[in-house]
Amino acid sequence: MNTRPVATFARTSARVLGRARGRIADAAWFGVSVLIAVGLVGSQLRSATSSLAEVADTAAAAAACLALWWRRRWPVPIAVVLGVLTCLTPAAQVPALVCLGTVASRRPVRPLIAVALVLVAATVTRYVDELSVPRFTLKISSERGDGNGAVNSALLLVIVIAWGLYIRARRQLVASLRERADKAEAEQRLRIEQARSGERARIAREMHDVLAHRISLISLQAGALQVSRRQDDAVAESAALIRTSAHQALEDLRGVIGVLRAGENETSPLVPQPTLADLRRLVEESVRAGMAVSLHEDPGDAYGDVPAHVGRTAYRVVQEGLTNARKHAPGAAVTVRASLGTGLDVEVRNPRGTARADLASPIPGAGQGLVGLSERARLVGGRLEYGWTAKDEFRLAAWLPLRE
Ligand SMILES: Nc1ncnc2c1ncn2[C@@H]1O[C@H](COP(=O)(O)OP(=O)(O)OP(=O)(O)O)[C@@H](O)[C@H]1O
Ligand SMILES: [Mg+2]
């Protein structure tokens, strides 16, 4: 099942929800600041000394509340301005604290320390008699000398900074978790794609090697039958061979289709799995089909030491070699050798074809057989060579290691 749209939907929803939560928090802080400002300004206006003070106090309070809308964009400058404003009107205190929280949660430590120092200085200024900062409100005067108020203000600053830092740590944690989840998801996707393409290549190789061999045998037999001038017995024998080969092709096809149908995570064996011991049978099949093939095996008594996957690869090399000889050098005598040395050596040789070209129509080929074989040999740590020799023979040879 493709889980990508679900994951994308979940991520988009989380982002939308996060943004909505931010907007609600903005509105809440704005509302709280306005309420407190209205309360403070209202009570202070009653005791204001002049109409200029009234206007300035109200304007400063309104500006402080409004500035909250831009606190995410420019948290540091706004926090500094609001900090200075707290010296002039207590209505700026809540917005200044909110902005301090934003700086703590979104900016590095240095700007945070700078903003905190501005707010500490503003707090000290509010409580120190000697400093004659022009104030619009009369209420300020009653704060002077109030020890509890100073302590509370300092405490509030510490709490807000701690809260902002906590939010920042949580946000960083969520971001790193999300990043790890994204990375794991991408890696998983890559692994699945690699496994799929590897599996497709494996199946394609298997289909090529198995079916090309069997079907080329059938084709050869059909060609021979077509031009046969011999008596009925020979025709019957060829027909029987065609039938057997066709049956085997169907069996092989069933095995390959079994692989295609197997579950994605299943590393099902490609049944039936040939081994080196089947080389003789393979050669006999070709001989029965009319090819002149001689097999020279030099296994000593160590054939059993050859790992199954190496034996299978060697079998496929000989199989493709015989198929190619049948296709590209009809009538030529073929020599197959298998010997054990530093590794397993297999070789298929044949001179140029001698059969009449009109004996049968040429068997089609995709030109992929030797390329696929090279890949097979490389996969087991071996190498494959092929081409025309100085003796004008086509030579296909593989060296396969006995250990990984
Ligand atoms: N035994 C051989 N004798 C002469 N020529 C050969 C022999 N084996 C291979 N060749 C040449 O090498 C070419 C590549 O062989 P390869 O097995 O890769 O492709 P193919 O047999 O044409 O097609 P496919 O194997 O995909 O069905 C052939 O087209 C042929 O020209
Ligand atoms: Mg071929």
Label this structure with key terms.
single chain, 404 residues, alpha+beta, 5-stranded mixed sheet, rod-shaped, binds adenosine-5'-triphosphate, binds magnesium ion
Structure write-up:
This protein is an alpha+beta fold. Among the domains are: 4-145, no CATH class; 274-404, Histidine kinase-like ATPase, C-terminal domain (Heat Shock Protein 90), CATH 3.30.565. Helices cover 65% and strands 9% of the residues. The chain contains 11 helices and 5 strands. It has helices spanning 4-46, 51-67, 75-85, 93-106, 109-127, 139-143, 147-227, 232-261, 279-288, 308-328, 369-379; strands spanning 293-298, 334-340, 343-351, 383-388, 393-401. The longest helix is centred in the middle third of the chain and has 81 residues, at 147-227. It is rod-shaped and about 130 Å long. Bound molecules: adenosine-5'-triphosphate (ATP) and magnesium ion (MG). Adenosine-5'-triphosphate is lined by residues 212, 324-325, 327-329, 350, 365-371, 394. Keywords: ATP-binding, Kinase, Membrane, Nucleotide-binding, Phosphoprotein, Transferase, Transmembrane, Transmembrane helix, Two-component regulatory system. It catalyses: ATP + protein L-histidine = ADP + protein N-phospho-L-histidine. This is histidine kinase.
